[in-house]
Amino acid sequence: MARIPVVQNILSANAALASDVRGRLDASGVFALNMMASPGAGKTSFITATIRALGDSLRVAYVDGDIETTIDAERIDALGVPVVQINTGGACHLDANMLSLALPQLPLDQVDLLIVENVGNLVCPAEFELGTHLNVLIASIPEGADKPYKYPTMYRGVDVLIVNKIDLLPYVPFDLGYFKRGVEVLSPGLTTFEVSCTTGDGIQAWVAWLKERVTHGSPR
Amino acid sequence: MARIPVVQNILSANAALASDVRGRLDASGVFALNMMASPGAGKTSFITATIRALGDSLRVAYVDGDIETTIDAERIDALGVPVVQINTGGACHLDANMLSLALPQLPLDQVDLLIVENVGNLVCPAEFELGTHLNVLIASIPEGADKPYKYPTMYRGVDVLIVNKIDLLPYVPFDLGYFKRGVEVLSPGLTTFEVSCTTGDGIQAWVAWLKERVTHGSPR
Predict the structure, then answer these.
(1) How far apart are CA B119 and CA B124, in angstroms?
(2) Residue A219: its pLDDT value, please?
(3) Where do the domains of chain A lie, and which CATH numbers do they carry?
(4) What is the pTM assigned to this prediction?
């Protein structure tokens, strides 16, 4: 039987491009994050809080992936960091080629930390590595505690987990133990930060950890 | 220049299958809903509340689309309605072929209303019609008010909008006016219900409207 391995070819072409992106980032001394989440988990608010808490300690740049609009890019642009908008025109995830095309628009030699905000989606972005150093998943309390079980590919491929909107715990049914057991099965020992971008809880701990990673490298 | 219209061919093959599904549903007198939402917007809770509120007034069946797991299907199965689980095995949306394969597993002649729960995703399900009569989008307050602007394809293709978790309005920043203006641009006059599955607010109004549509037909 003849088989046409379209998906496999797409993914291996993407992996080659991701490797090229990584090389270019490393050559410029840029540490990069791929921020992924469901729509509305608070990616942009969390990135805003991160950039504010970093202050002058790291030079940050930002790439925003969205299907349409520049709403998120404008929010980050207001913080005064270099911003590149990628509009995927319907595509449900970023891929390494898109990031590769964005890099020349950034002053990489003056950047320590590149934050890439992926399209809001718990499924497709997990399949496409970008060449970044860490995959960061932002979960949020109102999404419900069953998400690790229902979106295992995403939870399996992640390096850091942010549990956002922790201030809403009193108002929604969310079994934190059930959530954490699901995460532990898929990503044993996963580094996790519980935060609220509304109250600021947990942001300093995350930023201290991030600065350590950026400064001393050692991506896994 | 040679162009390979892969996506267009996939969508027209899907449309032909959707038309076949619709014919089979209509022949059995089944009215069908395609429930779409971001992960964690509360699709399964809303479907549970709907089935409970319908009581004996309509005979309901349920098809659950998920990447993996049977968590949602088990929740609905506990209500005593016929349930079929579709596991897409990684695919980020249902398509008409999957629903076509599910229909023979259901006693369609004893069903008035078929509720299909799509994979949690605000992007890809919007592209694949299933042959159902109404596309229902469930938004939720914690997602934020900018979602119509950021996921316009989904908001454009929808017949009914449910704004869920309305009980969380006091606890999260959500500009309802901004949200509604975005919806109005994309889907003028869209039928909208504001509900809370926690408090029960709005469920009766939705169910009364739904019963009217199922009983008197008139899908647009």
Answers:
(1) 9
(2) 47
(3) 12-214 (3.40.50.300)
(4) 0.91
